[in-house]
């Protein structure tokens, strides 16, 4: 969010749309690759929807073309998109991977989460119960 706010203040909306488009293409392709790997490694898992593997493989072919074309035509935009994605790595390590955090860090994370929930009206805070309208 912070990186997006900085880009919105410094750059124009067209550039931000290019960043997000590249990030979306990248994430969709990685998801489809994960689908194919799971179908290959764990074929007996229950799947509510099962499609012919020709569909995801065809999608990956188009995905690879779009990704390579994006990298060739606008390498700076793609690089910034990758940097935006990589800004989530420290958040992952601080919030998920680091198991034995000090209590002050846990309190800080909980207070930031509660503040964000109240600000965006997305979820009621953990301590309070929801009122019936």
What is the topology?
Layout: H1 2-10, H2 13-41, H3 54-73, H4 75-86, H5 88-97, H6 103-120
User: Which stretches are low in confidence, meaning pLDDT under 50 for 5 or more residues running?
Assistant: none
H-E string: HHHHHH
Number of E strands? 0
Morphology: extended
Class derived from helix and strand content: mainly alpha
Strand content of the residues, in percent?
A: under 5%
Please supply descriptive tags for the structure shown above:
single chain, 133 residues, mainly alpha, 6 helices, 0% strand, extended
Structure description:
The chain has 133 residues and is mostly helical. It has one domain (1-120). Helix content is 74%, strand content 0%. The chain is built from 6 helices and no strands. It has helices at residues 2-10, 13-41, 54-73, 75-86, 88-97, 103-120. Helix 2 (13-41) runs antiparallel to helix 3 (54-73) and helix 2 crosses helix 4 (75-86). The longest helix has 29 residues, at 13-41. It is extended, with a radius of gyration of 20 Å. It starts with a helix and ends in a 13-residue tail after the last helix. The mean pLDDT is 82.
Can you give me a brief rundown of this structure?
This protein is mainly alpha-helical.
């Amino acid at each position: 969010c912070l990186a997006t706010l900085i880009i919105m203040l410094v750059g124009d909306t067209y550039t931000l749309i290019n960043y997000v488009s590249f990030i979306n293409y990248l994430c969709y392709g990685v998801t489809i690759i994960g689908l194919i790997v799971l179908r290959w490694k764990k074929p007996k898992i229950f799947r509510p929807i099962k499609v012919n593997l020709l569909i995801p493989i065809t999608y990956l072919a188009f995905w690879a073309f779009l990704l390579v074309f994006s990298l060739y035509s606008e390498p700076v935009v793609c690089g910034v998109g990758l940097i935006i994605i990589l800004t989530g790595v420290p958040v992952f390590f601080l919030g998920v991977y680091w198991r034995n955090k000090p209590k002050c860090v846990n309190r800080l994370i909980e207070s930031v989460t509660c503040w964000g929930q109240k600000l965006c009206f997305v979820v009621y805070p953990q301590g309070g119960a929801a009122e019936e309208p």
